[in-house]
Amino acid sequence: MFNMTKNVVTNLLTKSSTRLYPIAVRGHFEGFRGTLVCNVDECIFCRSCMIKCPSQCITVDNKAGTWACDAMACVYCGVCVDVCPTSCLSMTKEHRPVATEHQTIFLQGVPKKKKKDEAAAE
Amino acid sequence: MARTILPFGPQHPVLPEPLHLKLTIENETVVEALPTLGYVHRGLEKLCEIRDFNQMIQIVERVCGICSCLHALCYCEGVEQIMGVEVPRRAKYLRTIWGELHRMHSHLLWLGLFADAFGFESLFMQFWRIRERIMDIMEATCGNRVVVSVNVIGGVRRDLSPEQCQWIEEQLAISEKELKQLSDTILSDYTVKKRTVGVGVLTKEQAYQLGAAGPTLRGSGWAQDVRQTGYAAFGELGFEPIVEYGCDSYARSAVRFRETLQSIDLVRLAIARMPAGETAADVAGAMEDDTPKPVSAGERRDIMQAYNRDKRHRFVTAPPPNLDLPAGHVAAKVKGKPDGEAVTRVEQPRGELLYYIKGNGSKNMERVRIRTPTFANIPPLLAMLPGCELADVPVIVLSIDPCISCTER
Q1: Which residue segment(s) compose the domain that A98 sits in?
Q2: Is residue A32 domain-resident?
Q3: Is this model's pTM higher than 0.90 or not?
Q4: CA distance A105 to B159
Q5: Which residues of B309-343 are buried (b: 16+ CB within 10 A; e: fewer)?
Q6: CA of B340: how far to CAs of B74, B82, B151, B367, in Å?
Q7: Rounded Cα gap, residues B281 and A29, in angstroms
Q8: I want to staple A111 with a disulfide (CB 3.0 to 4.6 A). Which of A65, A101, B313, B386 is the partner?
Q9: Is residue A95 one of the residues assigned to a domain?
Q10: Which residues lie across from A106 on neighbouring strands?
Q11: B157 to chain A, minimum CA–CA distance in Å?
Q12: What is the CATH number of the domain that holds A90?
């Protein structure tokens, strides 16, 4: 009886252990692997991410300068972020929103010119 | 007396995973049980032939969600053994810490499910509330709640700062306090004991002869735990296995409960003794690296010079909220290919996990064979079932903590 009274009083005086969900949303911690983001302007289309990706969801075309990711095949392991030499890949801590259709992230950048081509142009 | 055959599973309220048991019953008593497996076979072992040995880490992590870290640890230790890599001591301690956190959250999940199996739903929620705190630690330190993906060949991908270690210790202290409040209920409550004591008896001889593993074995009085072999940093932590002599479902739940408390102590000990230093060693195998060079040397030099000027965005590790970032660590450079074979064992939350890995000098493994503890625990389960009441079947099936996706891979 005494144990129970103690519990009842403690529960009355402490705040609720659940959240009022739509109003109070639990955020993610820093460094959470939520969504893969590519800053295509910095990308040099080296294809490291494509080679290392375990789920093979990234397709990079270094001639056309495109970077594509099958967002539904990505497992968010973060290996591509680790191997990216220019740090143009990063992960935000928010989840990708729910989708009803298959999504592919397709980014068009400027392909890197070879040095000899640049010299010829000059 | 007429006999009836009753199907139990694969879809059953107490089973988190699809296991089918064909129960032959006489009145309310089970006479015979026959298992059927194969509902979640995914062919992950075969994938080693088309994915390279680094990508296999992410694949073996998905063999089992709940002990992903330990699958990756076992695989990485095997490849390191083949390639002759000495893992830095700090990385070994970090692997131990994350491995024990995984054991804690797996045991807490199981204790909750077990309470739910005999209809004690408030206890289920209490255990899962404590588990949430462990999941938070995992999210803050590894970047994900379940599939943590921290192990790489040669070490670990993330590091812990002193602030993070302190935060983990604070969280563990709260969890320990909450767990000890529940010990009276799970270990000495009258109704709980009524459902678990003397249910699903597996004698000491049977446990040995049928090859039980993990808490099922230790609940039957055998002091056998793979952590005694001293993989990762366990050799330096003075580990002693937890044994119960009851041989029933109660003993198995007591082993898991006490192991959860022991894991808290092991994490504390590992944090206290963790040496400073590198978290990953460079790996160099016997063979030359023949992966195509993605960028030219000049281009790479330009990039690296730019990168050296600005290191902020590279290897950002995850702090808990409002804490400073720890010093960036160096990721392992893996060169060469594994050539040879290795057998490694680690203690999963459910028992002994064994990996046989064979490399043939190419980037793909020739064979990855995984033997999981539930596979070893199914024969003991079939020995426990005959003679029990039909209402006790869920409790007995859960008492071995079946992980069917591990078993079928």
Answers
A1: 28-112
A2: yes
A3: no
A4: 31
A5: eeeeeebbbbbbeebebbeebebbebebbbbbbbe
A6: 16, 6, 21, 11
A7: 28
A8: A65
A9: yes
A10: A68
A11: 9
A12: 3.30.70.3270
The answer to the question of residue A118 being in a domain is no
CB-CB under 8 Å, B314 with A78: no
Q: How far is CA B85 from CA A54, B283, B288, B311, B314, in A?
A: 23, 6, 16, 28, 25
Phi/psi at B366 (nearest 5 deg)? -80, -40
* Chain A hits for B58, Cβ within 8 Å: 54-55, 75, 77, 79
Residues comprising chain B, all counted: 409
| pLDDT tens for the 409 residues of chain B, in order | 788 888 887 888 777 788 888 989 988 889 988 988 888 888 888 888 888 888 888 889 888 888 888 999 999 988 888 888 888 888 888 899 999 999 999 999 999 988 988 888 888 998 998 999 999 899 888 888 888 888 888 888 888 888 888 888 888 888 888 898 888 888 888 888 888 888 888 888 888 889 888 899 998 888 888 888 878 888 888 788 888 888 889 999 999 999 999 898 888 888 888 877 777 776 655 433 333 334 445 554 554 555 445 444 333 333 444 443 343 444 556 777 778 888 898 998 988 899 998 888 888 888 888 988 988 899 999 998 888 888 888 889 888 888 888 888 8
Residue A16 falls inside a structural domain: no
What is the C-alpha to C-alpha distance for residues B385 and B379, in angstroms, rounded to an integer? 10
User: How many structural domains does chain A have?
Assistant: 1
Contacts of A91 in chain B (CB under 8 A): 143
CB B12 within 8 A of CB B394: yes
Q: Which residues of A touch B (CB under 8 A)?
A: 17, 28-33, 44, 46-48, 51-55, 75-79, 82, 85-87, 90-91, 112, 115
Inter-chain residue contact A85 with B307, CB threshold 8 Å: yes
What single string gives the DSSP state of each residue in B115-136? HHHTT-HHHHHHHHHHHHHHHH
What span, in angstroms and rounded, lies between the C-alpha atoms of B223 and A102? 52
What domains can be seen in chain B, in order of their start residue? 3-284+333-408 (1.10.645.10)
* Residue pointed to by tokens 């330990």: B70
